[in-house]
Amino acid sequence: MVDLTLTDNGILQQAFIRIQQDVDARFDAFLPIPSDSRTRLVEAMRYATIGGGKRVRPLLTVATAALFGVNRDAAVRAGCAVEAIHAYSLIHDDLPCMDDDTLRHGKATVHLEFDEATAVLAGDSLHALAFEILSMPETSGDPFVRAEMVAALAEASGFNGMAGGQMMDIAAEGANFDLHTITRLQQLKTGALLGSAVELGAILGRLPVESRGNLRNYARDIGLAFQITDDLLDVEGDEGAAGKALRKDEKAGKATFVSLMGADDARRQVGALIDQAIGHLAIYGSEADLLRALARFIQNRDR
Amino acid sequence: MVDLTLTDNGILQQAFIRIQQDVDARFDAFLPIPSDSRTRLVEAMRYATIGGGKRVRPLLTVATAALFGVNRDAAVRAGCAVEAIHAYSLIHDDLPCMDDDTLRHGKATVHLEFDEATAVLAGDSLHALAFEILSMPETSGDPFVRAEMVAALAEASGFNGMAGGQMMDIAAEGANFDLHTITRLQQLKTGALLGSAVELGAILGRLPVESRGNLRNYARDIGLAFQITDDLLDVEGDEGAAGKALRKDEKAGKATFVSLMGADDARRQVGALIDQAIGHLAIYGSEADLLRALARFIQNRDR
């Protein structure tokens, strides 16, 4: 469970507890252990998806969908699709040939708990599962909604989104990227998937594309703030609380928001982005309070 | 280009040449080189998708869709989605932690031509691209068709399909699998994706699920025959012609159709399966001649 004392926000704390339970229950149902030699694969998929992570992305989907009165079960399912992409990306990013990490959510990474081949296949299988979930009639009875969600998530995860950002991140080592390039890199690596979490909520809510500007701006601003706080936590955070290795960018000589702006300016930038993100929600009433609280949580998070 | 002298079939030869050109042209258009540090990633994706492979899967999609008068361009796009999944799976299967292969389609494998991290990300990006292609209105104007294609392909590629079969294949080493288990393994590992190639053609053709039995049986039979000929070629084939390493199963002590049945019985089984596959097409007239020729090609292929 996430420590939310910093947010001092009962609504948000309740929302986090509820989405964590819902997402765990969903993945438990999506991933029954088969009675053949795929057991190890599905166990690795369960290890990577059940009982770990803050579930910020599914909460973004659910909170956005709730603006438009979408059935919560449908929104949780769509949120799980985004979380499956997030989980697959962490498994692959942690591989020895990528970031070579040993710790994730305070547990051994998948390739250490299982093995590298199983980790590659568990990531691939979660990637496919995301699109399976989105294309099920149980997620939305409207095929247009299903197809639009698939289009949004596929773009956010591919070479024009997360995977492309990860490639830029690898190239960043010793590349002396400037603030503009780092912003673009992070927009792809982290921002695209966070944005898709909001977008899926809007699609489920049948919000026309031309009316999505405010929510997209909100998502873009919290996505950038999320990455800057990630860089701040990487420099100032505690490895035990983070449940993963920190200060790797510095060791690798990679430019980050903090190395380019300094910690104080980075913190000020986060504050400005979160204020701006909340400003984009001005057209919504109290039904957007959860999205506002989520933005403040991103500003104040300690892990 | 594939040597088709064994098929002695002008229609099929023309169809292969045309689909190879069309698929190459499509991937060229899907994968423009970006003007940032994602260049290497997109170059690896292009290396893995343009100018290699027989294109059996896209041809299956196009030939099936043609039964129902589907626009060829739409069918080629859907076939490219299946081929993108196939290409991603080859990249990941060839990784050092998986089959550790050095040669594919007569060229260095992606992780050798580029590097392991790029290979993981290129596979992941092609995986996402497949669903991007299927969810584009250009592939089908009908969102129900798009969503149904995504559902079919996602299931075929995940833990209940190709990735699950790959996991079983890894477990097969020294496991003494019997013929029943090998059949199930190959149905997942190879059969599911070949089946999805036919299924996508039927979905584009708006063939109702309850009328797809014959085509599904055809796909199941040629899929199994395809894998048995793969095992035969692995034992009897020439590495130069195959463009990849052979006789790896024997070295790894894995049971195959050939090790369990013997080469002669395996060959007879392929013949029976192909006759049976063609039998399932009896309800179609000359418009199914390409699917019939494809089945014979699978029986007689030398690579």
TrEMBL record, chains A, B:
SUPFAM superfamilies: Terpenoid synthases
InterPro entries according to UniProt: Isoprenoid_synthase_dom_sf (IPR008949), Polyprenyl_synt (IPR000092), Polyprenyl_synt_CS (IPR033749), Prenyl_diphosphate_synthase (IPR053378)
Keywords associated with the record: Isoprene biosynthesis, Magnesium, Metal-binding, Transferase
Record-linked PROSITE patterns: POLYPRENYL_SYNTHASE_2
Residues that span the membrane, as ranges: none
Pfam families reported for this sequence: polyprenyl_synt
Coiled coil ranges: none
Cofactor(s) in the UniProt record: Mg(2+)
NCBIfam families the record matches: FPPsyn
Family classification: Belongs to the FPP/GGPP synthase family.
Family matches, as PANTHER family: FARNESYL DIPHOSPHATE SYNTHASE
Protein name stated in the entry: Polyprenyl synthetase family protein
Organism encoding this protein: Tsuneonella flava
